[in-house]
């Protein structure tokens, strides 16, 4: 296993899960269970398997202790530095990078806590190195969800976010990035882009994995230009556009400017060209990312953004639909060496009807109970003569006698009274479902939870 020393890594785990508030009202997004493992386990495991020995994890201050306790129980070898950001401030991903800037002294890898992907990180790093890129972003095929798949809750038409991603066909240079929602019927492409990149494809079915390798100079620029709040929505599109520009004469001549004196909002090139060795390497390079013409290497660009497209499985569990889908499909894959079935040695299971399911610590499953293709968290109580299938049962849930739970999500601490039947439902944290209830495609949560943004 290779150990990487030229990169630092940071896992973004401070998000509130604003697109899945039905689930995050009672539990931090990064700790939501996916196949009975906390969501944050998956990016941490990917980094560990790739050879990284330490990483920074950014969370909000209020959940720092809880996240640390959960991760400690995973027994991972990767060393973590948990950093809590203020709860009351609405900090985006770019703001979070500024918050930890004094700890960053190398090129930076930024990973979202909701990324679950079977990727070869070394291939992504090699792509970044080959071009000495400013930013390299990982793109994945959008997961295909069967029309038969039902997300718990009311029937509704899913409207996933669609990115428009322009990629040079010969070089994988990222030349255009925008959200489809920013346009109505058509998009405008600048003549400058068309002249410089004569052959590129505009993709609408690629998933931005929120896995970025960022050159240290970009981090420096970000810290001194506080107008950017997010990486994906603001900084990355800005830098992609700047590839089409050229340094001003002043910036090109002034190799060692005073950072305090410069107008950082106007001139990103003061950060990008302050490495004389980098410029020399470019001039001497035998590699030309546009070998089909006679222009200088890399068009003599000092800002270079690329994508690495992986054809392996991957998704982001950032919506209720994708969270449900991840729990349903991951047991069928050889991802992360997870087993199809895992019953904790600390659980008390009296039933013999457990099929392809996960049972957590200190959970009681009574006799004459059937559990199929489900994930049962720790501290749950499942009483006798109950049937559970294709469901996610979180921590400390109680399901009483003679219940039927089909394709449901039951959040922390909720209680399902005896004789209830729930199909395609989501029950929020601490909710109580009265005995004899017969519910289909319902969401039962506190209204205050749904209004959290």
Question: Would you give an account of this structure?
Answer:
With 453 residues, the protein is an alpha/beta fold. It folds into 2 domains: 7-321, Spore Coat Polysaccharide Biosynthesis Protein SpsA, Chain A (Alpha-Beta Complex); 340-450, 3 Solenoid (UDP N-Acetylglucosamine Acyltransferase, domain 1). Helices cover 23% and strands 26% of the residues. It has 13 helices and 33 strands. The strands form 7 sheets. A 7-stranded mixed beta sheet has the order 5-4-1-6-12-8-13. A 7-stranded parallel beta sheet has the order 15-18-21-24-27-30-33, with no helix packed on it. Strands 16-19-22-25-28-31 form a 6-stranded parallel beta sheet, with no helix packed on it. The protein is elongated. 40% of the residues are buried. The model has no long low-confidence stretch (mean pLDDT 87). One of its GO terms (molecular function) is guanyl-nucleotide exchange factor activity. Residues 9-143 form the Nucleotidyl transferase domain. Residues 355-435 form the EIF2B subunit epsilon/gamma LbH domain. It comes from Microctonus aethiopoides. It is found in: Cytoplasm, Cytosol.
């Amino acid at each position: 296993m290779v150990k990487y020393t030229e990169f630092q890594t940071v896992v973004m785990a401070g998000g509130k899960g604003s697109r899945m508030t039905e689930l995050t009202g009672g539990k931090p997004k990064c700790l939501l269970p996916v196949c009975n493992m906390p969501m944050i386990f998956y990016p941490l495991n990917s980094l560990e398997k790739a050879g990284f020995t330490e990483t920074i994890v950014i969370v909000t201050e209020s959940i720092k202790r809880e996240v640390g306790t959960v991760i400690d129980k995973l027994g991972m070898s990767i060393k973590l530095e948990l950093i809590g950001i203020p709860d009351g401030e609405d900090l985006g991903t770019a703001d979070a990078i500024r918050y930890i800037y004094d700890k960053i002294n190398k090129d930076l890898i930024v990973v979202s806590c909701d990324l679950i992907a079977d990727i070869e990180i070394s291939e992504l790093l090699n792509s970044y190195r080959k071009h000495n890129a400013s930013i390299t972003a990982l793109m994945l095929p959008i997961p295909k969800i069967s029309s038969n798949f039902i997300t718990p809750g009311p029937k509704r038409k899913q409207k996933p976010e669609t990115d428009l991603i322009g990629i040079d066909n010969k070089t994988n240079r990222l030349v255009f990035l925008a959200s489809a929602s920013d346009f109505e019927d058509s998009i405008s492409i600048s003549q400058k882009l068309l002249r410089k990149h004569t052959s590129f494809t505009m993709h609408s079915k690629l998933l931005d994995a929120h896995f970025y390798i960022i050159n240290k100079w970009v981090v420096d620029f970000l810290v001194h230009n506080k107008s950017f709040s997010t990486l994906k929505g603001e900084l990355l599109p800005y830098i992609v556009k700047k590839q089409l520009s050229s340094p001003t004469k002043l910036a090109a001549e002034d190799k060692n400017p005073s950072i305090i004196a410069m107008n950082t909002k106007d001139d990103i090139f003061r950060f990008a060209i302050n490495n004389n060795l980098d410029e020399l390497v470019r001039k001497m390079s035998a590699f030309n990312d546009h070998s089909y013409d006679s222009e200088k290497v890399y068009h003599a660009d000092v800002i270079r953004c690329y994508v690495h497209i992986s054809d392996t499985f991957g998704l982001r569990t950032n919506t209720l639909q994708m969270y449900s889908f991840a729990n349903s499909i991951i047991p069928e894959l050889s991802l992360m060496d997870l087993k199809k079935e895992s019953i904790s040695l600390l659980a008390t299971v009296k039933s013999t009807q457990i099929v392809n399911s996960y049972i957590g610590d200190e959970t009681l499953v009574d006799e004459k109970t059937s559990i199929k293709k489900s994930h049962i968290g720790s501290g749950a109580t499942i009483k006798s003569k109950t049937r559970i299938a294709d469901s996610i049962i979180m921590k400390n849930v109680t399901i009483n006698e003679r219940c039927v739970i089909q394709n449901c999500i039951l959040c922390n601490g909720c209680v399902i009274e005896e004789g209830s039947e729930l199909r395609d439902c989501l029950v929020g944290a601490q909710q109580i479902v009265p005995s004899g209830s017969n519910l289909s495609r319902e969401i039962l949560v506190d209204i205050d939870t749904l209004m959290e943004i």
